[in-house]
Design a protein that fits this description.
The complex is a heterodimer of chains A (272) and B (164).
Chain A (H helix, E strand, L loop, with lengths): L8 H25 L4 H26 L2 H45 L4 E8 L6 E4 L12 E4 L3 E9 L4 E5 L6 E7 L3 E8 L5 E7 L9 E4 L11 E9 L6 E7 L9 E4 L8
Antiparallel strand pairs in A: 1-2, 1-12, 2-5, 3-4, 3-12, 4-5, 6-7, 6-9, 7-8, 8-11, 9-10, 10-11
Chain B lengths: L1 H21 L12 H12 L2 H15 L4 H14 L6 H27 L9 H29 L12
Helix pairs in contact in B: 2-3, 2-5, 2-6, 3-4, 4-5, 5-6
Classes of the chains: A alpha+beta (272), B mainly alpha (164).
Chain lengths: 272, 164
């Protein structure tokens, strides 16, 4: 009885050869994906590249003409430019991620539901107003507090259109925010903006026990701005015996001008 | 079976050499030498049809290049039917004809694909194929010389398969 074609020794031998060839290739491929062996393959490839790159460069120098060198220079310049753009884009993205992370940590911790917004325009350095990309259609209302980082007051909504809002920063000279200082004893006052980056807290009673380094937070009086948002720390106290009140210089923790991602806090209507 | 295993290791080593050494050179000269394809033709002629087909299948999978199918179909047929001797002319015949037919098919596909825009075929990939075709001839000469030297020296002790 004749043997089937697939049972002949020749076919079996060929099948073994094919299996061995592709088996080894599969094995090597699998090994190259395992983290233990991957460095070995990378080293092998790196060594081969290193060995030939020197020869290739010499070869390239011998046969290079002015045109090819100019092309290489142009390609390198373009590559450098692209890299710089990519690096700047990555740095911006990383900064934005860090800002959002801080904001979301705050919303998770305090269990508040705000409206995430981006600053889309700001004036020159002297300007203390910025424009954000959320407006009335998103639920933003005039007077709502704007928060950055882990619950720091950035400013309040001054004007609102359907898709955008104008935010008045805390440092605006027209800004006045009811605040309190957590020193040895709780003290209330009003934080007002100045021309510069620092703020001034006025109407602090003479008997108030405040010291440099105390935290200044929003008091929540008036109901527009939630209580407990950090405004800054006291860096200087001005005392005049004849004056009925003390005043303190308050320095914000972060430079508000470097932030691009903010949170619009839910507007709390004043209680009657 | 040991020969097939050695062949697989040779495949990996040569692919590393090609991607890390040959392609480093300035295009379109040495970097266009189709080393793996040259090795495939040498294997078809010197070792065997099965090994050659395996080589081209692995190369097709490695490069994800369907045009390698032409190598798989034509090179063994030419080796069996027309260029059955182990002379250098037979090797050149197999190599040049197979590669030429592959370029023709690529040209055909380009023509069909781009209909009236025939200038497409002169873009980099096609011109690179033509350059590889030119470099194939000295590559096959050099490759065959190396293989013959190997067969006379080391290869008399270590063979992929008995050359009967």
């Amino acid at each position: 009885m004749p043997r089937a074609w697939y049972s002949t020794e020749r076919v079996q031998e060929t099948a073994k050869r094919v299996a061995a060839f592709f088996g080894i290739l599969l094995l090597l491929w699998a090994l190259s994906t395992i983290s233990w062996f991957a460095p070995f393959f990378h080293t092998l490839q790196g060594a081969a590249y290193w060995a030939s790159s020197g020869v290739a460069q010499t070869f390239s120098r011998i046969f290079a003409n002015e045109e090819s060198l100019a092309n290489q220079l142009s390609a390198c310049t373009t590559m450098l430019s692209d890299q710089a753009v990519r690096a700047a884009s990555l740095a911006t993205a990383a900064d934005e991620v860090a800002q959002w992370r801080a904001v979301f940590e705050y919303t998770d911790r305090e269990e508040v539901k705000g409206i995430a917004a981006r600053i889309i325009a700001r004036g020159d350095l002297a300007s203390s107003n910025v424009l954000i990309d959320r407006g009335e259609s998103d639920g933003v209302q005039i007077g709502a507090a704007i928060v950055i980082g882990q619950g720091e007051l950035f400013g309040t909504v001054k004007n609102v259109s359907s898709t955008q809002s104008l935010v008045q920063l805390s440092e605006d000279p027209e800004s006045a925010i009811p605040a309190e200082i957590f020193g040895q004893k709780k003290t209330i006052g009003l934080v007002e903006g100045n021309e510069g980056a620092v703020l001034t807290m006025r109407y602090i009673p003479q008997e108030a026990a405040i010291t440099v380094g105390d935290s200044v937070v929003t008091s929540g009086l008036g109901g527009k701005i939630p209580r407990g948002l950090l405004i800054g720390t006291v860096t200087e106290i001005s005392t005049e015996p004849s004056a009925p009140f003390l005043s303190a210089t308050v320095t914000p923790v972060h430079d508000a001008r470097s932030w691009t991602s903010v949170l619009v806090m839910p507007y709390a209507a004043p209680e009657l | 079976m040991r020969g097939a295993m050695l062949l697989a290791i040779l495949f990996v080593a040569l692919s590393v050499v090609e991607s890390s050494m040959i392609w480093v050179f300035h295009a379109p000269w040495i970097s266009a030498v189709p080393m793996m394809t040259i090795a495939g033709f040498l294997i078809v002629q010197r070792i065997g049809i099965v090994e050659g087909v395996m080589w081209f299948i692995a190369l097709m999978l490695l490069r994800m290049d369907i045009t390698m199918l032409i190598m798989i179909l034509i090179a063994p047929t030419l080796t069996i039917r027309l260029f059955s001797t182990r002379s250098v002319y037979a090797l050149l015949g197999v190599g040049i004809t197979t590669y030429g037919m592959m370029i023709f098919v690529v040209f055909l596909f380009h023509s069909i694909g781009s209909a009236l825009a025939l200038s497409m075929v002169w873009h980099a990939p096609f011109s690179l194929l033509l350059m590889q075709w030119v470099l194939l001839v000295p590559g096959l000469y050099l490759g065959l010389s190396t293989v013959r030297w190997f067969e006379r020296t080391v290869g008399s002790h270590v063979t992929f398969k008995p050359l009967t």
